[in-house]
Design a protein that fits this description.
Blueprint (H helix, E strand, L loop, with lengths): L2 H10 L6 H15 E3 L6 E3 L4 H15 L4 E3 L2 E3 L3 H10 L3 E2 L5 E2 L12 H15 E3 L8 E5 L2 H13 L5 E5 L2 E6 L2 H11 L2 H51 L7 H12 L5 H7 L6 H19 L1
Antiparallel strand pairs: 1-2, 3-4, 5-6, 7-8, 8-10, 9-10
Helix pairs in contact: 1-3, 2-3, 2-5, 7-8, 8-9, 8-11, 9-11, 10-11
Length: 300
């Protein structure tokens, strides 16, 4: 199963103990995952996601003590009176014609408490949420049919200090997060704590791998730079030996030239330790620079 599927399985098993949270989550499930049934008067669940189906049935049973029934391929609430009770409790809207309207944002009364807002986000993610494989990239999104619902989701996320953006994709408005830390925070808000820990473990491994790669690249660049510099120093010293002679050099430069030829791969700090008396890295660098200046004069 995908990482996104595992998140939904975990959220589907999370049942709030408080009825007001159950109502908020049921609203999130139905606003995003339901459709208007035959005659545009009845509510039906319009999803092939088994996690959403199970969770919706469970919440309907717990909050209204009712069982849904199958009618053809559709799952319906069996009694009109009970259906009206559900619609009223969830503050679902009707148009002037009496048809159900699932395009409006959730009623603010249902999510006025922080716990209810968390439950609503959980229901919304179960219905229209998805998440990419975190080993490849960090991306979590809610695909909304209506801009108003997307904006409200974004606002709710901001109340939990989670920054989300909205993008228009074909006929949908998509609320999305692309930062690993924001996705971790959202999983925590929705109650997907096992998935959160799995994601954090993946993030740690990924960060360690990136850190090692950065260090290796940095060390490789430094080694390359050192090798290039050493090659230039050897070239200058050989030119001085062949065209000018070490005997014409001051003692400190002659000793430096001889030591560099003897230890062509040694770093500057270690080179200084071979000199008598020993000198520091800056002293070695100064002498090599003077040898380079002499070589440049010979070339010119």
């Amino acid at each position: 199963m995908s990482f996104s599927g595992n998140v939904k399985e975990e959220l589907a098993a999370h049942i709030s103990s408080a009825r007001h949270c159950q109502l908020a989550e049921l609203t999130g499930l139905l606003l995003f995952g339901a459709a208007v049934g035959e005659g545009n008067m009845h509510l039906r669940l319009d999803t092939e996601n088994e996690a959403v189906v199970r969770k919706c049935f469970t919440l309907l049973r717990k909050t209204f003590n009712i069982e849904t029934v199958m009618q053809g391929k559709e799952r319906l609430i069996p009694d009109d009176a009970l259906e009206c009770k559900v619609i009223q409790a969830l503050h679902l809207n009707r148009k002037e014609s009496g048809e159900l309207d699932l395009t409006k944002p959730v009623n603010s009364l249902l999510i006025k408490n922080s716990c209810c807002a968390r439950a609503y986000l959980r229901g919304a993610f179960l219905s229209v949420g998805s998440m990419s494989d975190p080993q490849k990239s960090y991306h979590l999104e809610f695909v909304c049919d209506e801009k108003a619902q997307a904006v409200q989701l974004q606002t709710i996320l901001q109340e939990f200090q989670i920054e989300a953006k909205i993008i228009r994709r074909k006929k949908y408005d998509v609320v999305y997060l692309k930062e690993g830390s924001g996705i971790v925070d959202l999983l925590n808000v929705m109650g997907a704590h096992v998935s959160l820990m799995n994601l954090e473990n993946l993030r740690i491994v990924k960060e360690m791998r990136n850190s090692v790669n950065r260090r290796v690249n940095c060390e490789t660049a430094n080694i390359s730079k050192t090798v290039t510099a050493a090659s230039k120093q050897i070239e200058d010293i050989l030119l001085i030996r062949d065209k000018y002679g070490f005997g014409n050099l001051p003692d400190n430069l002659r000793q430096m030239a001889e030591i560099r030829l003897e230890y062509p791969d040694v770093a500057l700090k270690e080179l200084g330790e071979y000199l008598e008396p020993s000198v520091g890295k800056s002293g070695v660098n100064h002498r090599l620079r003077r040898l380079s200046e002499i070589a440049d004069k010979i070339r010119s």
